[in-house]
Design goal:
alpha+beta, four-stranded antiparallel beta sheet, elongated
C-alpha cells in the first residue's frame, strides 16, 4: 500500500494561503452532478392508487370536457409552470365574453376537482393530474387552497 504523502498544507494564521510541496502538480475538479434523467414529456395521472396518493384520471376527464372547459384548460396548459404547479393566464388579454367563459369553465373544472384558483387569473392544476418532481410541495399547496 502506498504511503500517504501530504502535498498541500494550510497556513493556519492566514486561511487564504496554501502551501504545495515542490514538484507536485495539482488539479481542481468539480464533483460530478447527480444524474437525474427526465423524460421530454410530463407525467399525467391515470386514476390508479399508489402508496402516497390516488392519481387523477386526467385523460378520461379530458375526453368528457365541454367546449369551454377544453378551451380554458388549453390556456392553463399553455401557461403551466412545472416548478410551481400554477398557470398564470394574466399575460393574456381576454374580452368580456372570454372572461365570462373562463368563469363558467373554472366552475366546471373546480367541480371536477381538477383546478383551483390561487389568486386572480392564477390557477393550480391538481398535482395528481400532472405529476412533477415537486409533487409533495404542490400537493401540500393544493390541500391548503379552498
Amino acid at each position: 500500500m502506498k504511503d500517504f504523502v501530504n502535498v498541500v498544507t494550510q497556513d493556519l494564521s492566514d486561511p487564504t494561503k496554501f502551501h504545495v510541496a515542490a514538484g507536485t502538480s495539482l488539479g481542481l475538479f468539480q464533483p460530478p452532478k447527480k444524474h437525474n434523467p427526465q423524460p421530454p414529456f410530463r407525467r399525467i395521472g391515470n386514476g390508479m392508487t399508489g402508496k402516497h396518493a390516488t392519481a387523477y384520471p386526467l385523460l378520461e376527464t379530458m375526453l368528457t370536457f365541454s367546449k369551454p372547459e377544453s378551451w380554458f384548460f388549453t390556456y392553463l396548459l399553455k401557461y403551466y409552470k412545472e416548478y410551481t404547479g400554477e398557470s398564470d393566464i394574466s399575460k393574456e388579454s381576454f374580452s368580456k365574453a372570454d372572461l365570462n367563459s373562463i368563469s363558467k369553465a373554472f366552475a366546471l373544472l373546480h367541480k371536477r376537482g381538477l383546478v383551483k384558483r390561487v389568486k386572480r387569473q392564477v390557477y393550480m392544476i391538481n398535482p395528481n393530474a400532472i405529476i412533477t418532481d415537486n409533487w409533495k410541495d404542490h400537493n401540500n399547496k393544493w390541500q391548503s387552497l379552498p
